[in-house]
Amino acid sequence: MTEADIKPKSIHDAKKWSADVENLYRFQQAGYRDEVEYKQVKQVDTVERWPETGFVKKLQRRDNTFNYFDKQRECKDKEVHKVKVYVY
Questions:
Q1: I need a labelling partner for 40 at 20 to 30 A (CA). Which of 2, 32, 58, 80 fits?
Q2: Mean per-residue pLDDT for 49-75?
Q3: Is 85 helix (H, G, I), strand (E, B) or coil?
Q4: pTM: predicted TM-score of the whole model, two decimal places
């Protein structure tokens, strides 16, 4: 199986906030499932992250505009249940 063939086996909603959920929220705000899909579509090896927190800093959307994110948490508690967690 090549990297381009990677598809999630299952999906569920996030139940509580974590650093992983925060990063998934940021990818999904930019129009991607997660980091795996972003790297596949944009053909990149790394994602720009804040060194202090490890949160995603900047993502290029599918329309080639950019989303910029803060160092601090952006996914509010009321938004957590909207984040989709993909299992590979």
A1: 80
A2: 97
A3: strand
A4: 0.91
